[in-house]
Amino acid sequence: MKPLNSLNFSGGPGALPESVLLQVQQAILEVPEVGLSVLGISHRSDWFAAVVQETEDNIRALLGLDASYHVLLLQGGATQQFSMVPMTLLRGQQAPAQYLQTGYWSGKVLPEARLQGDIEVLWSGQSCGFSRLPADDELAFSADAPYLHYVSNETVEGLQFNRVLGREDVPRVCDMSSDFLSRPCEAERFALIYAHAQKNIGPAGVTVVLVKDALLQDAPTDLPAFLDYKQQIKAHSNLNTPPVFSIYVTLLVTRWLLHEVGGLANMDQINRQKAALLYQALDDSEGFYRGRAAVPDRSLMNVAMTLPSVALEQAFLAESALAGFSGLAGHRAVGGIRASIYNALSLTAVQRLTEFMQDFRRQHLS
Ligand code: PMP
User: Same structural domain for residues 327 and 257?
Assistant: First the structure.
């Protein structure tokens, strides 16, 4: 039988834990404690208020966040945050905000930020084809910048920072869309973190924002309500009809992380095992599978690689699909192959993929 779901290496929306999917299956018919389908429960119900509260509490517990942070569950994807951040923090500022351009997604942020004010691109990996991340001695962090913005994990190129960047006295803003809740992240060192749910913690439709209360002190007061963090905070993420279903599934994933996985340190350990296995397969392939990322900057989430020719890449995609694997095509911006190994993808699935890769290489070398 064709394996169901378990070999989903999609870059996003990504795989969800099986135990969560089983609960979702039930909830689509009927949430037991309510007696209604999750698709038809009012966002003004007590049940949904409790769902939002528990999701928020679970995220706080997983990250050890204190009361100085607000946890928001917003719409508009990570892309909406590309604008909401500078609308809130850049308008009317004298000094430019500093942005890092380390790949496709941090590049997408730049034009949106420029619509709101001056920014400085502190470093760009464009000239090296986004094959590596900068070292600290390549980065001149300014003390005057209203904030520093970077992407912790570049989903397309498979580059991930293993350290927190920037100065302690300049607010850090980080897009953690593709590695949020995949490992501990020293959240308290950031002023604002945003991450859409659709990689590691839920379906598309909801974006988690963690924001330090003090960051919003001087925020403009003339923003549209929907785009105003303060109004979203006041409304407890229920300013207009929120994506009830997506938030409910995200709650189930946070419960899974807390109670089945046992927290982010455990999740990190599992994710490291998966990544080590896959990168080993690249390194043992004598150049057949070539990683895009410089070795020290390899992502634990997205393993991006190329094969010796486009024809071989196409054969790899066709044969892997027949073998039951899904989502292995590289992002349309760069092509090649990408295996995304988010939280819910099992070690067994990665083992299966490495076996397939070894077989494929053997067959196509001869
Ligand atoms: N940032 C990163 C790091 C991403 O990987 C993505 C999408 N894959 C985005 C932003 C854009 O997210 P959305 O489609 O939710 O706007």
Answer: no
Residues 273 and 344 in one domain: yes
Which of 236, 261, 286 terminates a domain? The answer is: 261
14 within a domain of the structure (yes/no): no
Q: Given the CA of residue 82, which atom of ligand 1 is nearest to it?
A: 10
- What total number of domains does the chain contain? 2
Which residues constitute the domain of residue 115? 19-261
How many C-beta atoms lie closer than 10 Å to residue 33's C-beta? 8
Protein residue whose Cα sits closest to atom 14 of ligand 1 = 77
pLDDT digits (tens, 9 = 90+) for 260-308: 999 999 999 999 999 999 999 999 999 999 999 999 999 999 999 999 9
Spot the catalytic one: 47, 66, 136, 199. 199
- The residues, ordered by sequence, that sit 6+ positions from 173 with a Cβ below 8 Å of its Cβ are 85, 89, 147, 148, 149, 150, 190, 191, 192, 193, 194
Q: Is residue 4 part of a domain?
A: no
DSSP-derived secondary structure letter, 304? E
Does residue 1 carry a pLDDT above 60?
no
How many Å is the Cα radius of gyration of the chain?
A: 21
Q: Respond yes or no: is residue 105 known to be catalytic.
A: yes
The CATH code of the domain that includes 150 is 3.40.640.10
Within 6 A (CB) of ligand 1 lie 12, 77-79, 105, 151, 155, 175, 177-178, 196
What is the 106 CA–ligand 1 centroid distance (Å)? 10
Is 11 part of a structural domain of the chain? no
pLDDT digits (tens, 9 = 90+) for 61-120: 999 999 999 999 999 999 999 999 999 999 999 999 999 999 999 999 999 999 999 999
Buried b / exposed e over 102-138, threshold 16 CB at 10 Å, is bbbbbbbbeebbeebbebeebbbbeeeebbbbbeeee
Q: Closest Cα to residue 336, out of 311, 360, 319, 361?
A: 311
pLDDT bracket for residue 26 (50, 70, 90): very high
Residue 278 sits in a domain whose CATH number is 3.90.1150.10
Between CA 61 and CA 57 the distance in angstroms is 6
User: What is the DSSP annotation of 24-48?
Assistant: HHHHHH-BTTTTB-GGG--TTSHHH
Contact 98, 145 (CB under 8 A): yes
